[in-house]
């Protein structure tokens, strides 16, 4: 089913059986397509500090605030949203071997995702801490407050190997889309595994989607270590300023349409680009494919909307829209689901 509406309009951000947000969007009426996700899986501690601005902290402080520990990571976060849209969701990541391992596997079962995890014996699971501070109340344009994300150095996911990816080839080949992200590029080992997965997918006719994170990847890797993955992708999701900095386009950092010819020169083929932009690089998106601007649309993010998890909800919606032929205006076609 091709749609001229934006992903935020159809299928919307509520999934098949999500809670009605009151925006008048009906969402999807059936789960379709199979998705295979490769990315990080671990434990994350999250806390929002409504009374603390990081810039004001100049001494030790005790504060009581909402805090929780959850199973998270790029693969789990997307899968949690994707199971509300897609018929089948598989997750491949490398995890550790400790008391959190059964907790992680239980969470995948709970959300309805297929477990393709690989375990590294004798190694603890990766742990991250996400803190979000209070916005600067003196400035109305500061958004939800600064986020501090502390990630364990060299978590198990950085050691996912090409051999482990090949052992999961059947799941990749059976999927309608392989979804990957840039954290796997941060290690030579997992980078090779990521390229292997993308080539397995392309050889099997499985589409490849790539989320260009972390958002400061340009400060962590040279462009020539990122471009090969962009060239393997059929769909790329990215904050526009991230791509502009990575590709050395100063003008495009502030004007998203200046980025489009830069992308055409840097990356061969006709991937569909979903470029996030706005005050916090999440308020708007531009869908673009070589030889034609597809559409610009508001994502639905703004004041009063919880930021944590919003990007994954939006990405799941965009993936369903894309596979359903939503990009047909620029030559995209709906995918025929591979299994009934």
Automatic annotation (TrEMBL):
Name of the protein this chain belongs to: Carbohydrate kinase PfkB domain-containing protein
Gene3D superfamilies: 3.40.1190.20
Any Pfam family hit: PfkB
Residue span of region Disordered: 1-21
Organism lineage: Bacteria, Bacillati, Actinomycetota, Actinomycetes, Streptosporangiales
Highest taxon listed in the record's lineage: Bacteria
Alphabetized InterPro entries for the sequence: PfkB_dom, Ribokinase-like
Carbohydrate kinase PfkB domain span: 70-261
């Amino acid at each position: 089913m091709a749609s001229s509406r934006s992903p935020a309009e159809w299928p919307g951000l509520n999934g098949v059986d999500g809670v009605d947000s009151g925006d008048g969007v009906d969402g999807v009426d059936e789960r379709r397509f199979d998705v295979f996700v490769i990315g990080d899986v671990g434990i994350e501690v999250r806390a929002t500090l409504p009374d603390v601005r990081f810039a004001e902290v100049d001494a030790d402080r005790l504060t009581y605030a909402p805090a929780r520990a959850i199973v998270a990571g790029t693969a789990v976060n997307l899968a949690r949203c994707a199971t509300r849209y897609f018929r089948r969701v598989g997750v491949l990541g490398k995890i550790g071997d400790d008391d959190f391992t059964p907790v992680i596997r239980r969470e995948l079962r709970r959300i309805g995702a297929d477990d393709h995890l690989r375990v590294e014996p004798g190694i603890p699971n990766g742990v991250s801490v996400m803190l979000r501070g209070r916005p600067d109340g003196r400035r109305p344009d500061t958004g939800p407050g600064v986020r501090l994300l502390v990630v364990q150095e060299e978590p198990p996911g950085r050691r996912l190997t090409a051999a482990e990816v090949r052992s999961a080839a059947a799941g990749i080949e059976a999927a309608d889309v392989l979804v990957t992200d840039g954290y796997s590029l941060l290690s030579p080992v997992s980078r090779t595994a990521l390229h292997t997965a993308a080539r397995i997918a392309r050889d099997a006719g499985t589409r490849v989607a790539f989320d260009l994170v972390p958002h400061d990847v340009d400060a962590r890797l040279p462009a020539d270590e990122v471009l090969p993955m962009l060239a393997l992708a059929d769909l790329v999701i990215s904050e526009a300023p991230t791509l502009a900095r990575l590709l050395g386009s100063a003008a495009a950092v502030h004007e998203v349409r200046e980025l489009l010819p830069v992308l055409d020169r840097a990356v061969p083929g006709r991937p569909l680009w979903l470029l996030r932009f706005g005050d916090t690089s999440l308020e708007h998106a531009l869908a673009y494919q070589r030889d034609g601007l597809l559409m610009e649309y508001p994502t639905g993010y703004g004041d009063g909307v919880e930021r944590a998890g919003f990007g994954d909800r939006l990405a799941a919606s965009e993936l369903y829209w894309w596979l359903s032929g939503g990009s047909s205006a620029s030559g995209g076609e709906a995918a025929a689901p591979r299994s009934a």
